[in-house]
Predict the structure.
Amino acid sequence: MQIEDIAEAAREAGGIMLTARRPRIMEKSGHANFCTETDEKIQQFLFKRLSELAPEAAFLGEEDGQDVFEAKMSKGYCFVIDPIDGTSNFIHSYHPSVVSIALLSDGEPYMGVVYNPYDDMMFTARRGQGAYLNGERIMSSDVPLSDSLAVFGTAPYYPELRERTFDLAKKLLPLCVDLRRSGTAAWDLCCVAMGMCSLYFELKLQIWDYAAGALIAREAGCIVTDLEGKPLSYRGPSSGLCRARGVREIPGCFV
Ligand code: IPD
């Protein structure tokens, strides 16, 4: 399977995002957890297009409402899709929102594509073969955290994690130049991958939020783990900590 074909599907999906007008909004479980008819439309488009590319592949998509990885997904190919990562951004026209597509092979990340259609930025990575932005190789920053921006996610759907999230953010702030919050985890991981910031953390993510972005970040030289420094799970939800090359140790506030 060619990563260029997956990227082309992501580009077309991004076109659906750009042309959507006042989509219907549906509420899911958890605080301010929404889905729009555009999320559903893009997911259906991607299922169709990607199954033409790899008819044998399984699918795990955010709008299936599943948050568990099934045994069948750990064998052969499995696409893990977030049709719109940053749905709240999308609803409020706060950019960016991205299309995120990971391909797992035997349960391990094999290819990752993240596309930001607003700025026409296509991130791609194949395991062991580097990370690219619009075809140009990217590497994460080797500048220390003290001279870098850091970004974090608020785990918005899990109120029980709010206090710890903001406590960590408060402790991280004096260790870096400043903090940012974008509203899309896949984009945050790409921002660390391309060197715009040096660290990203979030206390709870679903696999479709990070599967593609984490591979892109890793291939750009980042260390991507859960908050305890353990390897990310590709079987279900996880916390996430992504460090650029210059952040050699896990900062003290996380330990
Ligand atoms: C969310 C975004 C957000 C992150 C949440 C994710 P969604 O994905 O990535 O930045 O904080 O944890 O669930 O719901 O917009 O696809």
Remarks:
- Residues 62, 82, 85-88, 153-156, 183-185, 202, 205-206, 209 surround D-MYO-inositol-1-phosphate (CB under 6 Å).
- The first strand starts at residue 25 and ends at 27.
